[in-house]
Write a structure and sequence with these properties.
Strand order of the largest sheet: 13-12-9-14-17-18-19-20
Distance between the termini: 67 Å
CATH architecture of the largest domain: 3-Layer(aba) Sandwich
Strand content: 15-25%
Largest sheet: 8 strands, mixed
Radius of gyration: 26 Å
Shape: elongated
Number of strands: 20
CATH class of the largest domain: Alpha Beta
Number of helices: 12
Length: 430
């Protein structure tokens, strides 16, 4: 049988990463030590990937493993993934107490029925449970965080387990919701667990601060099946919401319907139209304690004067009268004058100086910050169409204008997300 392959048998491109290195995706766990506690469930085989995911955010990871856990994942795999020796027994160095190098968070993944109930009832008869007993003492002193990821067959979710989880939650232990499939509590995907550890270990001033982020298009109907929309996917809004979530903010993303879907851990609502968007934004902005709104959605500027009922038969000429839509950010500004608002302004066919003047005009309308960008600077450079996206944007703020500071230049969508989050840390963070 003929074997087909597109591989041309050449060696892989060279890399600056050593064998056990990981590419950095963020700095949310930079300088943090994370204890990964591996117990005796089949999901333990996924923990090397989880360890590397934590390291991609800058964490130092040390694995503690029970003898049962090491039946499902090899010691060598854990040590390769963490770059640290596995702690699987108590020694005179008292690793379970972590006095010499305390941990910022303890992640128990998978957390078995046995381990959860032992922790809840003060049993410390193994390396893992002894480490958790000490961690609980540190948690009560505000010195660390503990995250449990219940992973087990559904028949093991008994009233005893529920009582133990309630007791631990009351003590400040965070229980990460499992992924429910096939009658089992399954371990969530790696990126979900990494996000929850980032939030738990965050030292940002945005921890617990409530806000909303909007992104994506807001289509308007022209008949019963057709709609007018735009080319924006909502990726920037997603990245801003993710950045704020990882820093610990209590955010909700309002995402216009597109091919892009937010990660499952991110609190979000998908809206199908301009009208749904307008209503949802007002509801969320009016929630008690909402401190800020980041309005990056590409909101429809026009809508049909009349929406045709049913479906317009194809093949016919059709003229549609468009009328301006109400400005949602203006309505939000008027309804919630205390809300800190970051709004976006996109222009095309104008100079950089003209863009900044328009943005400064927005600041005079009562918005605290404006992210200004030109359509010509939203993709790869014209002379390098294959280059990475170098989306340029400029952050103008009330305080910066009063102080005579130059607008902050932000490069790339992730750079824009970080810039917006940094601004909110300075202005609405606790």
């Amino acid at each position: 049988m003929e074997q087909r392959s597109d591989w041309d048998l050449t060696p892989p491109p060279t890399s600056n990463l050593a064998d056990r290195d990981v590419p950095r995706e963020g700095e949310h766990l930079a300088g943090r030590r994370i204890a990964l506690l591996v117990t005796g469930g089949i999901a333990a085989y996924r923990t090397p990937t989880l360890a590397r995911g934590l390291r991609r955010q800058g964490a130092e990871v040390v694995a503690f493993a029970s003898s049962e856990g090491l039946r499902y994942v090899a010691r060598d795999a854990l040590e390769w993934a963490t770059t640290n020796p596995v702690v699987d027994r108590l020694t005179p160095r008292a690793e379970h107490l972590s006095d010499e190098a305390p941990f910022d968070a303890f992640l128990v993944a998978p957390a078995t029925y046995n381990t959860i109930n032992k922790l809840a009832h003060g049993i410390a008869d193994t390396t893992v449970t002894a480490a958790l007993a000490s961690a609980l003492g540190r948690l009560e002193r505000g010195q660390t965080k503990i995250l449990l990821v219940p992973t087990m067959h559904g028949t093991l979710h008994t009233s005893i387990l529920t009582e133990s989880l309630e007791r631990l939650t009351a003590l400040g232990v965070q229980v990460v919701a499992p992924r429910e499939e096939y009658g089992k509590h399954n371990i969530p995907d790696e990126h979900v667990l990494v996000a929850e550890v980032c939030r738990a270990a965050s030292r940002s001033t945005l921890r617990g601060v409530r806000g909303i982020v909007t992104g994506g298009p807001t289509p308007v109907l022209i008949d019963g099946v057709r709609r007018l929309t735009n080319r924006f996917s909502g990726r920037l809004g997603n990245l801003i919401a993710e950045e704020l979530y990882l820093r610990g903010a209590d955010i909700h993303l309002v995402q216009g319907q597109s091919s892009l879907h937010p990660p499952e851990y991110l609190p979000s609502t998908m809206v199908r139209s301009y009208d749904e968007y307008r209503e949802m934004v007002k509801v969320l902005a009016g929630q008690e304690g909402c401190s800020f709104g980041v309005f990056s959605a590409a909101v429809a500027d026009y809508r049909p004067k009349e929406i045709r009922e049913g479906k317009m038969p194809s093949g016919r000429e059709w003229s549609i009268d468009l009328v301006p839509t109400p400005k949602v950010i203006r309505e939000v500004r008027d309804a919630f004058p205390e809300l800190h608002m970051v709004v976006f302004k996109l222009e095309e066919g104008i100079s950089h100086e003209e863009l900044l003047e328009i943005a400064r005009g927005r600041l005079t309308e009562g918005y605290q910050a404006v992210v200004a960008n030109r359509g010509e600077e939203m993709g790869p450079p014209p002379d390098r169409p294959d280059a990475p996206d170098e989306h340029l944007a400029y952050l103008l703020t009330e305080a910066g204008e009063r102080a005579g500071k130059e607008p902050e230049r932000m490069v790339g969508k992730r750079g824009i997300a970080r810039g917006v989050a940094d601004h909110l840390e300075r202005t609405v963070g606790r």
